[in-house]
Amino acid sequence: MQLSEQEIIRREKLSKLRALGINPYPANLFPVDHTTKQIKETFEESKKVVTAGRLMSVRDQGKASFAEIQDQEGRIQLYFNRDVICTGDDKTLYNTVFKKLTDLGDFIGIEGELFTTQVGAKCIRVEKFSILSKTLRPLPLPKTDDEGNIFDAFTDPELRYRMRYVDLIVNPLNKEIFIKRTKLYNAMRQFFNDRGYLEVDTPVLQAIPGGAAARPFITHHNALDIPLYMRIANELYLKRLIVGGFEGVYEFSKNFRNEGMDRTHNPEFTAMEIYVAYKDYNWMMDFTEQLLEHCAIAVNGSSKATFGEYEIDFKAPYKRITMRQAIIDFTGFDIDGKSEDEIREAAKNMGIAVDETMGKGKLIDEIFGEKCEGNYIQPTFITDYPKEMSPLTKEHRDNPELTERFELMVCGKEIANSYSELNDPIDQRERFEEQLKLSEKGDDEAGQFIDEDFLRALEFGMPPTGGLGIGMDRLIMFLTNNPSIQEVLLFPQMRPEKAVPAYELTDDEKIILSILEKHENKMPLSTLKEQAALSGKKWDKAMKGLASHNLTKVVTENEDKVVEGIF
Asked: Where, in this chain's numbering, is Mg(2+) 2 bound (predicted)?
């Protein structure tokens, strides 16, 4: 393990704290009675408080110091006075523990009384403090100059996503994204629960990956000696519950799709699906409008949200347009009554990449995705999808070529999908078989399995049902003005970190280490410097490089500085 100079120093401080009889990782609880927010909201002069947080700044003024700690809700200023903290002759707690052995990033517990500084800042006069957790790595804290310019901010996206824990510390405004995410879930649950719908859990490991057209992740169950699949959707299990007699069920489902990654797709994502008996897709459009208006207000205090250059309004009602009409509007091509070959040829003429494995539904989907989808900025329902695109959807009551389905588009992206659910078991079997033929033809996103148990469930009878699925990650992107899905996931999927390459010594560093080896890896600093015969600049650079990679350290013995080799 190669440690930086700062990491070495912090470990040395850790040892010194323990030598003083201080446990830098105490087990006992710390009796916090106020958060930083509560202190500010209920501020009273001379009020006693107990709080805790991470030390984020220190301004040393000799016998006194100002500092700031940060907790989940914000920051509060602290005032350390040596003679207040150390009332007797022993000033170790202030002079040594606080000033020399405490670092930015350490968690500390504070007991003290409130007062207002001369410049009007709310502050805690510290009477007692405790180290609750010693940090061994320095925080990448941004620096601000006298003109307010910020330097060394922790903004690199890959580092922020990989070390989200650091991102949340040094960029506290990013916490608001995830607070709003929780508000969204709570608002949606409240909306459903108030209407009497039941939240349920369904299997993540499934023998048959159904409910969507997507490539699954595959695993193996050792005890049963069978392959299992991470769920791509929970639809078929929720419908089984409607068969079983529940009339309204929903689930926030972690789904897994072994497909591409980009700014709007993560292989692990969260979807909400709800199924309500005796409803259809027309009722579900009204329901979806009311739901999203309610959620937008709960998250942002308004039905309006800013996303990039657009202001989106989730206030009901939303525009409704058929898929056929959308394609006519933006391409001039009418898909009605056209054969698969005619649609494929039209797609080619539009400059859309298609191939022979694509069936009629996939071709229509490609045309809509390439030519139409991106034009819908305000919430818009696209309705009445061709039957080939919707194997789990009830045939349209007025046109047997279509299904009773809608997708909700916002800023050119789908955030919701809904059906009048197919409950005819014979029709459902035929749809599954058609999907299986497409899979055999080469469409790896078509259904590759027929779920016999689900068909058996339908044969016991499922009432007319309306279903709705919402991509929660994408929805919170729109509500928090984040164009990248990675920004709204606490821990997005990342490539493994590259191994740190072995440190390659410079010629000057090799000279120093070779001399140390001849003297049993330990010798006076002045003697080593003399024998190395390096210029001052080269000496300083070589010694700094060796120390930063934990290859040497300088210690004091009998008031003389000695260099030790650690190799």
From this structure: 414
